[in-house]
Amino acid sequence: MSTKNKWVAGIIIVAIVIWAGYSLFSGTGSPSQTSSGPIRIGFMGPLTGDEASVGENGLAAVQIARDEINSAGGVNGRQVEVIAEDSKCDPTAAADAANKLVNVDKVTAIIGGLCSSETLAAIPIAQAAHIPIISYGSTNPKITTAGDYKYRFVPSDNLQGKFAAEYIANTLKAKRVAILYCLSDWCVGLHDVVKQRLGELGVSVVDEEGFQQGAQDLRTQVTKIKAANPDVVYFPAYTGETIIGLKQIKQLGLKVKLIGADGWDDPKIPAEAGSAADGAMYVIPANEQLPQSFIDKMAKLVGGPQLIAYSPRAYDILKALAGIMQSVGANSEKINAALKNNFTYKGIADTYTIDQNGDDVTAKYIIKGYEGGKIVELGQ
Amino acid sequence: MGILNQLVMNAIIAGAAYAILALGFNVIFGITKFLNMAYGAVAVVGAYGVFLFCRLNSLPLWLGIPLAIIAAGIVSYLSDVLVFRKLRRRKATSLVHVVASLGLMFLLQAAIAIFFTSQYQSLADQNSPASVYAVAGTFITSVQIITVITALAVLFGLTLVLKKSAFGRAIRAISDDEEVSKIIGINTDRIISITFFLGGAIAGLAGILVGFDIGIFPTMGLIFLLEAAIASIIGGIGNVYGGVLGAFLLAFAENFGVWKINTVWKPSVGIGLLVLFLIFRPQGILRGVSKK
């Protein structure tokens, strides 16, 4: 190619790229919301990666809600369409997912993410486009002050951490506690709250060991914790590292009570860890007794009885959004205003009361545990 | 001093796994002189091979494991025949080889994730977990003992091959000077491809052992690659004994480096050690091979 032709080709390519970028992203600011045709709602969650079983479970619940809404005539005659994006429990992937939902799919609202790191990454993007984002599983305290367009149908970890610390101190009667935690927003948030509350209750934290999210080898951490001789180990972590940690704790002969956090509500953990998981327990927000029709539909959709605690909340979010849109229309700003206005909603999992910061202030927790490869309820 | 014993034991276990990885990495590096980023992914192929043969198709272990090792070797062999040999023909620089290997790494990882999902899986049967033995106040499992023995066996076997066999002599000749080796009649392409097979098989073996110890997921290859590369560089790149020394040094540094500080710093100890060596002794503990 001669030099002149190369220049011409180069200019044409640059022009195409600029035009494509403009037409794709010109929607930032206020999405062009049509008043007819399907209403588009975005869903963000980990559909691949370590937390995929939890994310897919949540998506299934949202799809059930969508089908129920649509078969009852939709919202003001318009069908609801759910566009799902994979955020991989990773902030970079979550930012990409949010960008696509906001700028390319031009959704009216976003249900998501699951992991706190996902939601924290997505909130600024949704905020810039004035689109409400409602999480069904992100509990990190930092989310409370993260923006004006964010809400969650789960309580903040300020409350979960307090409950866990009080349970450790008062029910388990521990005097020496070690904390083994992953280095993602969610784990670090819990670590901070629990450590502080334990200090207030007069329980000493004898060792704290951190590890990268997705770490493969926790032997050093477990060895050091064993040497510190705790009564209880508080172990907030995601699925993969929990399975590895439980196995290595058993291998290294660390015999203590293990208590984890809401991320442990994944049936994969006791299934893969086997006997190493027996006796371990964790804190999880309580759900009301779910209607049998929902349980049956979930069982059919996911091919088994797996029902993870946050999935019915995702169902509730879509149903709540449908209710709001029925009265104010499919307009993001009006939906946001409705959510800010002392919003309460009675869903199948819980009765939610959303405060001025977008947090759900109702917080009831229970303890579940692992026994014989399965999750069992242990009460309070 | 119970914790001291266990830390030593942990270092030996980790060092053994790193040593096997470094051995395979060095065998390939010695002959091709570039940082093969797909190496870690080949180890993962071995681990998932066992998953495919033994867990999904119920083959017995004594059949599934050798099959998986051969599969990993074949993947490595093909990476040379299909990609690297063509680059060598065109006299491509090391950088080009590294970029190509990076692409291969993503390809392999993605293929594994597509077929097996990217979720964590267990390789060992969780209903019969590995038996734990108490040794001098420390705990070690049967899988970990096998890893240590295997590391020694591979080191011994590889040394034998490299020193005593015609194949080994050919490898050393090519490693010394590829052009001259061609002139004296060595079929360099064939020897290099077989070396890739050998290195890949060793990687697969390491992947299988680690998989039985902790489980498998597609992105674990990155950690394998990092440990193998650091161990090889600080031990003397291209030198198989150096790789083993470097592996154990790395493992001990990682485990003891965080004895008194929060273990969040564990990954940075390995990198810190690498930086120290690159500044003060770039040729490694034992002098490695250098690019002409």
Structure description:
The complex is a heterodimer of chains A (380) and B (292). In chain A, 44% of the residues lie in helices and 18% in strands. Chain A has 380 residues and is of the alpha/beta class. Chain A has helices at 3-25, 52-71, 91-104, 116-128, 157-171, 185-200, 219-228, 239-251, 268-273, 292-302, 311-328, 332-340; strands spanning 39-45, 80-86, 109-111, 133-135, 150-152, 176-182, 204-211, 232-234, 257-260, 281-285, 344-346, 351-353, 365-371, 374-379. In chain A, strands 7-6-8-9-10-13-14 form a seven-stranded mixed beta sheet, with helices on both faces. In chain A, strands 2-1-3-4-5 form a five-stranded parallel beta sheet, sandwiched between helices. Chain A is globular. In chain A, helix 2 (52-71) packs across helix 10 (292-302) and helix 11 (311-328) packs across helix 12. Chain A contains twelve helices and 14 strands. Chain B has 292 residues and is mostly helical. A two-stranded antiparallel ribbon of chain B has the order 1-2. The model of chain B has no long low-confidence stretch (mean pLDDT 89). The interface between A and B is large, with 39 and 38 residues.
